[in-house]
Amino acid sequence: MLGRKKKLAIMKFSHGILTTFGKLDQQDVHTIDGNTERLVTQLMEQYDWQLDDARSRVDLFRASLTKQPNCSMMTSNHKI
Description:
It is a single chain. By secondary structure, the protein is mostly helical. It has a domain at 24-68. It has helices at residues 4-20, 26-32, 36-47, 51-67. 14% of the residues are buried.
C-alpha cells in the first residue's frame, strides 16, 4: 500500500502531465504510471520530439512540480 506522500506525488505528477502536455490524455497517464522514461517515450510519440528534447522537457516539468505547492496543481493551465 502506498503512503500518503507517495499517493500525493503520483496525483501531482499525473495531473501535471494532463495540464502541461495537452496532447496526452488519461490513457497515456495510465500507461506512464508515474515513470519518467515512459513519459519521455509518450512525448516522443505524441509530439514527434527527439530523445534529448523530450528528456529536457521532462526535466523542466519535474522541476516545476517541485516548485509548486500541492494546492496549485489544481489551477495550473500551462500547456505545451
